[in-house]
From TrEMBL:
UniProt keyword Transferase, yes or no: yes
SUPFAM superfamilies, per the entry: NTF2-like
Calcium/calmodulin-dependent protein kinase II association-domain domain mapped to chain residues: 30-147
InterPro entries: Ca/CaM-dep_prot_kinase-assoc, NTF2-like_dom_sf, Steroid_delta5-4_isomerase
MF (Gene Ontology): kinase activity
Protein name, per record: Calcium/calmodulin-dependent protein kinase type II
Keywords on record: Kinase, Transferase
Species the sequence originates in: Sphingomonas humi
UniProt xrefs under NCBIfam families: SgcJ/EcaC family oxidoreductase (TIGR02246)
Amino acid sequence: MLASALLASPAMAQGQAASCAPIPADAPTALFNQFNAAWATKNPDTVTDLFSKDAVLLATVSNVPRTDRAAIRDYFEAFLKGAPVGTINTSNVRQGCNMLVKMGTWTVALTNQNSGVRNNVKARYTFIYKYEDGAWKIAHLHSSMMPISE
């Protein structure tokens, strides 16, 4: 039921006909690869441009919810200094009209700027993409570190 609510478009919820953008079969992987490639540029604007106008970022290494472009950019300005590289470990995908959700577990490798030591952070993630202005954008990204043990 919750997944259905997440995937319903506002137009569909109001009983209007919606025009749904096609979702290529490789979209979940391609969108993540685009995100990882944006990280590799170390340019916070390149990463921030992947987010929708009203995006929410609940980042792994920040206690501050980022709810506008300036705050999302601010997060990546600092975070990208660690040369992050993401690797998907598990993935589940749900699709709807103009909406795609990718969730699971991932490992983010970060390099300490002072020591050069690389650290792997194991985390859970949820990417919610929406089709906006002719492109797939990240409407919500939530990542949280995995508990040390269950």
